[in-house]
Design goal:
heterotetramer, A alpha/beta, B alpha/beta, C alpha/beta, D mainly beta, A: alpha/beta, Rossmann fold, Dimethylsulfoxide Reductase, domain 2, 18 helices, about 20% strand, globular, D: mainly beta, Pectate Lyase C-like, 13-stranded mixed sheet, 4-stranded mixed sheet, 19 strands
Chain lengths: ~425, ~130, ~575, ~260
């Protein structure tokens, strides 16, 4: 059976033009998707049943047993951490927030090690952006700063920017100037009209220099800034000022390097300054399929996009204090529920190691690195494959993921709802 | 030799990210890309192993030449191998130093570890699904 | 079978011509009925003021733009925090509260139905998800068409039927309620960083003028027989001297509908400025109200501002950027492909600023100079002018000349010279207020037939009982009591269930979403129009099949079918 | 009157304690105050041995002394307006935030957000202060607005971010971006600093040690002798990228260029 217009749940592009062929309840062919989509849909090996760790190894247990024990673990924890949420749909995320509120937990999503710093910058200066269709239809200058879409978002350039045919940009590539700024000469740098190689940790200085040049204060700038020649900076500033519609896309090159959110703030203020000359927008390339969805759900329910601490009964937010890596690094949490993510692989050693010291429960379709650190792993559906639900694209457009096949797994929203009901009084006082 | 560790995504890493027990994933995420000149200075060839050390710990990786990596830097895809040696300091922002960790790289003969072994080193117990 | 009898209620129900009669109200299974058995639970209203549930006809409480306002201001989120208590979830935020914050605070003030002021069709799914998380009010969504490419093409071809067909398809896809035009044409010009300066100026590339968009959309609206009229945010918002644009717009409004207005002009305070620069800006409320008083086919809402911090958020991208260049505070912008734009910036309205004081005065002048209260509704374009929790203060100001004088004394000296507020003696009465906060909205939105805005037999049992004894409170002198009385109801009943008692929420809500399904003849169904489909697939970044909002997003959807082209 | 609080050994020592109730004024009414351990409410006596010496009728005469392992106790001295607090060991985050008067002396190290959004009063930290020393809350336009913070040791990153008023005096070195987004007040760093005063709007900053990675958008306007610090300093105006009118004075020495 052919299923059309399927949404790939892997990365923030949420490409929604895939065609899948299914046979006997399994997906056998993927069309229009990139190789990441193929891997997501086809080689989808799952943990067959819930498992629990014993002294010597692992044993299979029933869903009811796993759910009840999870509720018991969370019920009497003094500072439980609920982490992940980015690869599942909005319905599960909402129940997660209700659980965190009910047991006075800290709830955080994967933006804390991805675009959390971009959120901090937006909270200082705002976010002049737009949906990807505006860029596709109008942009004649595209800047990729500190990101490598060819590797991380393979179809970004063909669906939304460089190679996309736009209403006002019918000749696509020929009418667009592509600038790539990075410390590394990536494949994306290979297709750029202008490649700016910045010294390590020098993004902030280069951005400040560009802002000064755009403000007409080029005289203040020295001959070289973080390894970039002043002439190249002036040339870039001219290209941007003369654009009809400019779009900056930035990635973890800004959020993870020295200065963290200050780099992103500087890039947003550059966009702001350019808006006094022409139309300019800026957007982060969000990594996970529905990480932006977890930000949106957390925000309309608690007021904050990530790192929310309910210990005092109210929602408290302070990245650096209530963020998952900090709470694990300080050994503060005494129980953890990991949903739809893999901190065992993505967190620094000291933070991941703490998960092994406390009762940790994982709810995820696949065996991952965190499984080894956990006490219980409950397999569930994978959003976009055998579970439908809402996901938010990297530019905020909400799309409904499709349930393409059924593999007999319970939806993680169902599992979380059962846990929530037990916590809500189903278990006595 | 002193380097700055840079991490990031790659298509092979993304494709194998949901199957961390596999050989493919291990090869992909334990590759350490170095500038060919640096590899010459270290006296190592493509595919030989290096021991990368930081105050947080050490890890054995496979060296691979890459033109795009500048001298003084090394690039490893995000994953348990790179994170085995990255500090959990977040400078009050919640974000660790995934792209500015200072490392020491030396050639070595030690074997590559599996993801399961890395997890067991930090207190976990490997689960080998059927 | 749940039965309630509210006895001893001092009811004002303008739609049914009841003005302060002591009576009983019988409720069964969420509806108002003739009578109930003696097993019914009895609520003694103690001769207190009892009104139909409040209706807000222009508020920003859900959707991408509002959530962006929360997302970018943790400093406001921490300014309004409350703990989880009983049925009440945690809330955060003062001028842009979280969804539960909005729902609880509106319920405490007796509001039971809200119209979300702006929803981009491409992001409608987000608005509906937040509707479900605003459990105590029935929700309706104004759907943005101001920069819609398909509409502008149809308008250029002067094809009202085609325009109506695009509107019908989009409203159904977005599960929207009415047509919203925000700075028509201007948001498309903002796609290139420009704006339009008048309603006769051409939109770049699309060769249509705002005037043409407005007039064609009004005709399409009536052709489809939509319950609500076109909901317009005029061009040139917030610019000194923009009153002329507003008057020009009012002049092209025909009278096409006997039952309700043909145009709903929103937050007109922001569009009633005389002068030419920020230095000599003055009030033109008299000119605007003279035009309204002579045109029964127009209904406006005040767009009142109140002093203090708040957040401006509107689809009018260019206006927000101009404001940003003045205030130099944070600025967010989110243009939506092929449809509209949006901008968000925090502002502080200060009594030290002559401009802000004049804006404050203009809002009140509009309400006091509009003869017929049904034509000027009490709104603050929440949160742009002020958070909705300040409505009671506005009611107090409108009912008490003394309160206005005391406030005017604390304002900038220029206020007296450049506005006529201080000279206005009129004091609105309880009946006027009931019109301007629920009855007027119900009529303007066309939801009277849905049982909203009145307490007649068969109406939805949405009732607000305020701790005010109209027989013993003189609003002109004791305005403090009026303000306090409207802040917290003794009881708020929603669809026959007591939802809030003395400001505390006591049930998990279950709200409904009203949306319009306008039937169009076969040949005008856009889903069969190859040209429309081709353009959609080529220039949108989502597939046409993934665009419409699925029914799962409206667990308690209330479809309103209209018969077009009769 | 002196109130001595000695922290008890706890089953879960890493659990954070939020003790905003520990301010001199509250002890006028006695010592049955409430604090939070993780998500559980505790009485003061559950977490501290409490000793009270003498009596006081006015809060300014109350001195609170914290002993034992207090490194995980947060928000001590919040909204403090008078009296004094002495912390013998290390102190947790948000010590002295929203402070408007009185003095806090920390003999050990202070965790992040020391003196957040201070209005007045004095904080003296003998050890090191972690990140965000003397700053504001996320999204606010102003950080510290008055009072004095003095750190004998070093600080972490973003010291004195959004400084709007008052004095911040760091005897040791700071991390990255001290004085970033500064808009008023005075920042003195006797040790080294990296990328000081990024995006500065106003206010003045003096650095006696070495500046690493000076930002390219500061305009050198001359030199000036600073007798109180016995140095001659290069005077910079900036941050030009932000139309800043701040003053950054760096002791004359070769600016080191190497990336840290």
């Amino acid at each position: 059976m052919i299923v059309r217009d399927v949404i790939c749940p892997f990365c923030g592009c949420l490409c929604d033009d895939l065609e899948l062929e299914t046979e006997g309840g399994r997906i056998v062919k993927v069309q229009n998707g990139c190789s990441l989509a193929e891997a997501t849909f086809i080689s989808d090996t799952r943990l067959p049943a819930p498992i629990r760790r014993t002294e010597t190894g692992w044993e299979e247990i029933s869903y009811d047993e796993a759910i009840r024990e999870t509720a018991e673990i969370l019920q009497d924890a003094d500072r439980p951490l609920l982490y992940g949420w980015s690869s599942t749909h909005g319905e599960a995320q909402s129940i997660g927030v209700h659980i965190a509120e009910r047991i006075g937990a800290v709830i955080d999503n994967t933006s804390t090690v991805c675009h959390g710093p971009s959120i901090l910058a937006i909270q200082e200066v705002g976010h002049p952006g737009c949906t990807l269709g505006q860029v596709k239809n109008r942009a004649d200058v595209i800047i990729y700063w500190g990101c490598n879409p060819i590797e991380a978002h393979p179809r970004h350039m063909s669906r939304y920017t460089t190679y996309a045919t736009g209403f006002f940009v019918p000749d696509a590539r020929r009418e667009r100037t592509v600038i790539v700024v990075d410390t590394r000469r990536t494949d994306t740098a290979g297709i750029a009209d202008e490649f700016v190689q910045v010294e390590h940790g020098g993004d902030y200085a280069v951005l400040s220099a560009l802002r000064a040049i755009v403000r007409g204060k080029a005289s203040v700038i020295p001959a070289k800034v973080a390894g970039v020649a002043k002439e190249q900076l002036i040339r870039i500033a001219e290209i941007c000022k003369n654009a009809k519609f400019g779009a900056i896309f930035f990635g973890l090159g800004l959020t993870m390097s020295r200065g963290k959110y200050k780099n992103v703030r500087n890039a947003i203020e550059l966009t702001d300054a350019l808006n006094r000359h022409t139309k300019f927008v800026i957007s982060p390339l969000r990594g996970h399929g529905n990480v932006y969805g977890s930000n949106e759900v957390f925000t309309w329910m608690t007021g904050y996009p990530f790192a929310v601490d309910f210990a005092r009964g109210i929602a408290f937010y302070n990245p650096g204090e209530t963020t998952a890596v900090d709470i694990l690094r300080r050994g503060e949490c005494d129980a953890a529920l990991i949903v739809a993510s893999d901190p065992g692989a993505n967190f620094p050693r000291a933070a991941a190691a703490h998960l092994a010291k406390i009762p940790t429960v994982v709810i995820d379709p696949h065996v991952n690195a965190t499984t080894a650190l956990s006490r219980i792993h409950i397999p569930c559906t994978a959003a976009g494959i055998d579970a439908a639900g809402t996901a938010y694209r990297m530019d905020g457009v909400p799309i409904r993921l499709k349930k393409v096949i059924d593999r007999g797994y319970p939806d993680d929203a169902e599992i979380l709802k059962k846990i929530y009901d037990l916590l809500n009084g189903g278990m006595g006082p | 030799m002193k380097f700055v560790l840079n991490t990031g995504r790659s298509v092979p890493q993304g494709a194998a990210v949901e199957h961390k027990g596999t050989e493919v994933y291990r090869t992909v995420s334990s590759a350490c890309f170095l500038n060919p000149v640096d590899m010459m200075l270290l006296g190592i060839e493509n595919g030989e192993r290096v021991r990368v050390t930081t105050p947080a710990g050490h890890i054995v990786l496979t060296a691979c030449p890459a033109e795009g990596v500048t001298q003084g830097e090394c690039f490893v895809t995000i994953g348990p191998y790179a994170n085995h040696i990255i500090s959990s300091e977040t400078h009050g922002t919640g974000m660790p130093d995934f792209k500015s960790q200072r490392v020491d790289v030396e050639p070595t003969e030690e074997p590559l570890k599996s993801v399961g072994e890395l997890m067991e080193e930090i207190g976990g117990l490997r689960y080998d699904s059927a | 079978m749940t039965e309630i009898r509210v006895k001893n209620a001092c009811v004002i129900d303008p739609i049914r011509g009841i003005n302060g009669e002591i009576m009983d109200i019988a409720i069964r299974d969420g509806r108002i009925v003739e009578s109930v058995s003696d097993r019914a639970e009895v609520i003694d209203a103690g001769r207190c003021l009892t009104l139909p549930g409040g209706i807000d006809s222009h508020t920003h409480v859900s959707g991408t733009k509002v959530n962006f306002g929360r997302y970018m201001s943790p400093e406001d989120m921490r300014a309004g925090r409350t703990k989880r208590k009983g049925k009440m979830h945690v809330t955060s935020g003062y001028y842009v509260p979280t969804t539960f914050g909005n729902s609880y605070r509106y319920s405490a003030m007796g509001y039971t139905t809200l119209l979300e002021g702006a929803m981009a069709p491409l992001e409608a799914r987000h608005t509906h998800e937040e509707f479900t998380a605003t459990p105590h009010q029935d929700m309706l969504a104004n759907t943005l068409f101001d920069g819609n490419w398909a509409v502008m093409d149809a308008v250029r071809e002067k094809d009202v039927r085609k325009t109506a067909a695009v509107v019908a398809w989009t409203l159904k896809a977005a599960r929207g309620y009415g047509i919203k035009l925000t700075n028509p044409g201007g948001t498309e010009a903002w796609g290139w960083g420009e704006d339009l300066t008048g309603i006769q100026e051409m939109v770049p590339h699309f060769a249509v003028t705002p005037a043409e968009i407005i007039t064609t959309m009004m005709r399409a609206n009536e052709l489809l027989g939509l319950p609500h009229s076109v909901h317009l945010h005029c061009n040139n918002l917030g610019k000194p001297g923009n009153y002329q644009t507003t008057l020009d717009t009012f002049d092209i409004v025909p009278d096409l509908n006997p039952d309700r207005q043909t145009l709903y002009a929103t937050h007109v305070q922001f569009h009633a400025y005389g002068g030419g620069t920020w230095k000599n800006i003055c009030s033109r409320a008299e000119d605007i109200t003279r035009s309204i008083n002579s045109k029964s086919q127009i209904v406006i809402d005040m767009g009142q501002i109140m002093f203090g911090r708040t957040m401006t958020m509107t689809a009018d991208g260019p206006m927000e950027f101009n404001l940003h260049c003045l205030h130099n505070n944070k600025w967010s912008n989110h243009d939506v492909e092929l449809e509209t734009g949006s901008g968000i910036i925090p502002v502080t309205y200060s009594k030290k600023s002559a401009v802000n004081c004049i804006m404050w005065a203009i809002g009140l002048e509009l309400a006091l100079l509009t003869k017929n209260p049904w034509q000027c509704l009490l709104e603050t374009d929440n949160p742009n002018g002020a958070p909705f929790v300040k409505y009671p203060e506005i009611i107090g100001l409108l009912m008490s000349k003394r309160y206005r004088d005391e406030e005017c004394a604390t304002l900038h000296a220029e206020t007296e010279k450049r506005t006529s507020l201080c000279a206005l003696e009129r004091e609105l009465d309880w009946h006027d207020i009931a019109v301007m906060t629920r009855a007027g909205q119900a009529k303007a939105l066309g939801i009277v037939s849905q049982g909203k805005g009145h307490l007649g037999i068969g109406a939805e049992a949405d009732i607000a009982i305020y701790p005010i004894r109209t027989d013993s409170v003189d609003p002109a002198r004791e305005y403090r009591k009026v303000v306090e009385g409207f802040q917290k109801t003794r009881y708020t009943i929603k669809r026959g269930r007591v939802v809030s008692r003395d400001g505390e929420i006591i049930v998990d809500g279950a709200n409904a979403t009203f949306w319009v399904d306008a039937k169009v003849p076969e040949d005008l169904m856009m889903e069969n129009d190859p040209e429309f489909i081709k353009r959609f697939e080529q220039f949108y970044t989502v597939r046409m099949s993934n665009y419409p909002v699925q029914d799962v997003y409206l667990p308690r959807g209330r479809r309103i079918e209209t018969e077009a082209f009769t | 009157m002196r109130v001595i609080l000695e922290s008890k050994v706890r089953a879960k020592p890493n659990l954070p304690i939020e003790a905003e109730a520990i301010i001199p004024r509250n002890f006028l009414k006695g010592t049955d105050l409430l604090v939070y351990e993780g998500n559980k409410e505790r009485t003061l006596s559950e977490l501290f041995w409490i000793f009270v010496e003498g009596t006081a009728v006015a809060p300014e005469n109350i001195e609170v002394v914290l002993k034992g392992d207090t490194s995980r106790i947060k928000r001590v001295g919040e909204y403090m307006d008078t009296g004094s607090i002495i912390i013998e060991g290390d102190i947790g985050m948000h010590c002295g935030n929203f402070m408007s008067g009185g003095t806090i002396e920390i003999r050990g190290n202070a965790d992040s957000w020391l003196g957040r959004e201070m209005r007045g009063g004095t904080i003296l930290c003998r050890g090191n202060a972690s990140h965000y020393c003397a700053t504001g809350y996320r999204g606010e336009k102003k950080g510290m607005q008055g009072g004095k913070v003095e750190v004998s040791g070093n600080t972490g990153d973003f010291c004195a971010e959004y400084l709007a008023g008052g004095t911040v005096h760091i005897h040791g070195s700071t991390g990255d971006f001290p004085g970033v987004e500064m808009r008023g007040g005075e920042l003195i760093i006797e040790g080294d600093a990296t990328r000081p005063c990024g995006n500065m709007k106003n206010g003045s900053c003096v650095i006696l040690g070495t500046v690493h990675d000076m930002l390219p958008t500061f305009e050198k306007t001359g030199q000036q002798v600073l007798p109180e610090w016995k140095i001659t300093a290069d005077v910079y105006k900036g941050d030009v990228a932000n139309r800043g009118k701040g003053t950054l004075m760096v002791a004359c020495r070769s600016l080191s260029r190497q990336t840290p």
